[in-house]
Amino acid sequence: MTETVSTRAVGRTPTAVDAVVTHHRDGSRSGVARFNELLAGHLGVPLVGIDELPAEAAAAPLLSFKVRELDPAAESALRAWLDGVAATWDLFLHEYRGSELERTLVGGARLVHCGNTEIEAAVRDVARETDTLWTPGLVVDDRSFHAAETSVFSFGMAHKLRTDMFRRLRVLLDESARSYALYVSAANHETASLRDSTIVFEELDEIFLEKLYFLGNLSDVAVVNYLRSTTFYAAFFPAGVRANNTSVASALERGAVVITNLDEHSPREFVHLENVLDIEQLDELPSDPRVLARISAAALETGRSRSWEQLVEALR
Q: Checking CA distances to 128, which of 2, 11, 82, 147 falls within 20 to 30 Å?
């Protein structure tokens, strides 16, 4: 159903918005924050945190956040700004619950943009002027997965990325003269935070460009299917892979051909070109299906020897 525009907004003379004010700056944490990032970009204005409002001196900011999501520091900063503000502001309401602070924001706004008709009905008697708008979709990467001769999957990386080893992987992939793609999952239980996973993606994007696909947070079953269907699994560590690196364990248990880095403290049973590939010893990526099948079978056996059942037996 098409949203209608309130007649109260017809004929108004708008003041250009010169900043979008958000409740936090990390668009990976909420849809509203991501909406604000995209909106500021489309408007060509700065994205400003609530705590930056006094210094920003925006003449006509658009406040866009859910009041119930404000932490105490943000709420305090907002109230201080409202007490001393001389500028006008517009408001984009993503919800309305009728709290005291929401009523203050709505009542003082030059124009209240309502995200849907339910919100507009709730505030039309409180606001000076309203209209009813909408929120476009937040999915901006609409590339199709293109078929690739070599596919690499990675998940569960720590926030400190071994950029040098991924650059080495890029060189090996380029030298193979085969088409390739890298698929990356954040894997929440392995990654310190959503913000860390965003940093990882940005760093990898600089290396692999259009051949990188960020998959977000995958379920276990999705991770397993990528491990089983891609050519390689890649994971690099500050010194070398360790016996308690659970992402590599998951890959071995599914027979994935693992590209990692080995050192003197890596498990002795991890042997280059037998059951894993050591990025620092590779001159080229193996492509012979028979070689890959042999390494995969050996990886599966290694994974089985380090299973939960084997661990329980060792603890008894």
A: 2
Instruction: Tell me how far apart the alpha carbons of residues 152 and 211 are, in angstroms, rounded to a whole number.
Output: 10
Residue corresponding to tokens 């009041």: 67
183 by DSSP, 3-state: which? strand
The answer to whether 127 and 161 are in contact (CB under 8 A) is no
Q: Which residue has the tokens 């003041």?
A: 15
Q: Give the other-Cβ count within 10 Å of 10's Cβ.
A: 9
Q: What are phi and psi of 20, to 5 degrees?
A: -105, 125
**What DSSP line would sit under 133-175, residue for residue?**
----------PPPPP-SEEEEEE---SS--HHHHHHHHHHHHH
Q: How far is CA 272 from the centre of its chain?
A: 33
How many Cβ atoms are within 10 Å of 294's Cβ, its own excluded? 16
- Helix, coil or strand: residue 309: helix
Vertex 201 angle, CA 198 and 202, to 5°:
90
The residue type of 188 is N
pTM above 0.85, yes or no: no
Pair of tokens at residue 103: 């009523």
Question: In order along the chain (316 residues), what is the average pLDDT of each group of 10 residues?
Answer: 40 68 75 92 92 72 94 92 80 95 95 96 95 90 87 78 92 96 75 55 89 89 95 94 92 97 96 98 97 98 93 88
